Amino acid sequence: MPPLKYEQIADSLRRRIADGEFGPGELLPSSRDLCEQWGVSRATAIKAMEILRGDGLVVPHQGRGFTVTETPLARPAGARRAGNNRTTGGRPFRRLGTPEMLTPPSHIADALNLPAGQTALHRARLILTDDGGPMSYVTAWFPSDIVEHCPRLTYAGPIAEGTTHYVRRQTGRGPVRGTDMTTVRLATKQEADHLGVKRPAAVAVDLHTAYDQHEKPLVCEEGITPSGLWECIDNYPMSEGG
Questions:
Q1: 3-class SS at 83?
Q2: Dmax of the chain from CA atoms?
Q3: Peptide bond into 226 cis (omega under 30)
Q4: Closest of 135, 163, 9 to residue 72, by C-alpha
Q5: pTM, full prediction
Q6: In angstroms, how far is the first alpha carbon of the chain from the final one?
Q7: What would the pLDDT profile of 130-189 be if each residue is shown by its tens digit?
Q8: Is-contact 18 12, C-beta < 8 A?
Q9: Residue 86 in contact with residue 104, Cβ under 8 Å?
Q10: Rg, C-alpha atoms of the chain
Q11: Which of 97, 95, 93, 49 lies closest to 71 in space, CA to CA?
């Protein structure tokens, strides 16, 4: 099924932002401009901008329109249910180090279905609390078949459109299923240093793997969160007498 018109507009603007045509804080085309360019109604143009707003890419300004966000958002590992976007649980973050091809730990290799010794691209970020302190240390691992089509994953800076949209645009592969597993253990020295906690310290470990329409892994993320900052709230229906 071809994308709807508002999705095409959103994808076009997302690509232009990613390519640097519109930088942080810069004003995007008005809804009137988009209507004329695409031959659509104002409601369709606004819906396209709301998609980008949900992705955390743009910020609305009364009487001015939308500008590119100056504070990119990222989410902790896991909880990527259908219907959620980057602003659902999204927080300011800081990139750590430079992405590089490394041999992943065995549990990451198993999640990505990698043979022993095969490398994957390692990217790390630190999700921040409201006051700017460390909240969750997240490492993302991308298999080589994704990396070879997505060179920006190897860049140190954030990807404005988000890695999910970027990978889909470059490869035609998007997430259709996710698996989350949560465990508890003690933090390693490196994790404790990033999180600013004193060892021994209990941490929650969220392991998230995303799969495409062919059940091939796209990425595996591991989020390490201090026990005092981790919580899980789930609302679900219950049957009477069940």
A1: coil
A2: 61
A3: no
A4: 163
A5: 0.80
A6: 40
A7: 888 999 999 999 999 999 999 999 998 778 778 888 899 899 999 999 999 999 999 999
A8: no
A9: no
A10: 19
A11: 93
